[in-house]
Amino acid sequence: MKMTKVGTVYQLSFMPRVFPVNCYFVEEEDSLTLIDAALPYSTKSIVKAAQVIGKPIKRIIVTHAHDDHVGALDTLKKVFPDMHVSISIREAALLAGDSTLLESETNSPIRGGIPKNIQTQPDSLLKEGDMIGSLEVILSPGHTPGSISLIDTRNHSLIVGDALQTRGGTAVNGVIKPLFPFPSLVTWNKRIALESAKKLLSYKPGLLAVGHGRMLEQPENSMSRAINEAELKFQQ
After folding, report:
1. What domains sit in the chain, N to C, each tagged with a CATH number?
2. What would you measure as the largest C-alpha separation in the chain, in angstroms?
3. What's the rounded mean pLDDT across residues 28-47?
């Protein structure tokens, strides 16, 4: 595991040279908020990283319920039974293993590794604009119907789950990058993902933190290019 810090954000990257899977700490004055739970074997590294930082993990927010974002959730909850767990209202069904589409949703299958036996129950269900510590919730569906992103209101650090990637080149989810195609191969709806990327750019982020790939400082130009590429590809 490799830990990288930019401002209030710590990236914990597992298998960074081969198949990077990231989760994040956001540092508050007296505690840490964990964004996503990486892989099943990630628990010890996450706990050790918090010890190195020197603050307790009080909250975890799940951006979306794919296996590589909730893998260590149950074991972390056992280590920290008082840890507050949050996920979007829509994504809670996927966390429970239910991939049924709502009547209002585009009729395309929800792809990717949907967990089958997560025991942890969310303590709160999130909606647009909710605040958890310094983080504001942004609904950013596309990769899954209930995906969310989080922006640190202190410095505009933006953590987007799989709404975008930087591994293999900065891309909107749904645009396949040959060097790292995997997130886009399991996109639920690429056109909705594009609209979410445009929405995220409108927040004028100072840092982009993704589920797969390195963090980007001052990412607006890279995000704009990725959006333009997606628009062209999705029109074809």
Report:
1. 2-235 (3.60.15.10)
2. 50
3. 97
